[in-house]
UniProtKB/TrEMBL annotation:
Superkingdom as given in the UniProt entry: Bacteria
Keyword list, A-Z: Coiled coil
This protein's record includes keyword Coiled coil: yes
Coiled-coil zones: 5-73
Organism, as annotated: Lactococcus lactis
Protein name: Replication-associated protein
């Protein structure tokens, strides 16, 4: 009878040790997994969106500069002075 109790106690201790090991492994895996999930869900997406915004702003600025240069190069239309000729006649 005593032998059976000793065996049960040993098995219970082994189970307890295994549970503690599993818990520690699970906690380690969670700690490794958390930063990656944060990167996927938040900061990397925000970073990509921010990069896209910056790229679009740069394109907008360049197109505005090109438009301004084109306006500067465009010849200025002067109105004809035909009315002077009317007064002379």
């Amino acid at each position: 009878m005593q032998n059976l109790l000793d065996q049960q106690q040993r098995l219970a201790l082994q189970d307890k040790k295994l549970l503690e090991e599993y818990k520690s492994e699970i906690n380690e895996l969670k700690s490794l997994k958390m930063p990656q999930e944060d990167m996927k869900d938040g900061s990397s997406i925000r970073g990509e969106a921010q990069e896209e915004i910056e790229r679009l702003k740069a394109q907008l600025k360049l197109s505005e500069e090109e438009r301004n240069k084109a306006k500067e190069k465009e010849p200025v239309k002067t109105e004809s002075k035909k009315w002077w000729g009317l007064w002379r006649k």
